[in-house]
Amino acid sequence: xxxxxxxxxxxxxxxxxxxxxxxxxxxxxxxxxxxxxxxxxxxxxxxxxxxxxxxxxxxxxxxxxxxxxxxxxxx
Length: 75
Known about the structure:
The chain is an all-alpha fold. The protein is built from three helices and no strands.
């Protein structure tokens, strides 16, 4: 089972820990902290990446049906 909690580090408090303890009572859990950088990408960076993708010769696009067929063939 995997649960994902997205929260600002400054908002973590004992209530969060207590809720984890309540949910996962008497079980071993692993806590992995990952920095969520998505909020740090500027509008200029997003525009640059979209333009780069649109102008790339290496970009590949699929229709929904083509994608589903490819996934089915791969699994």
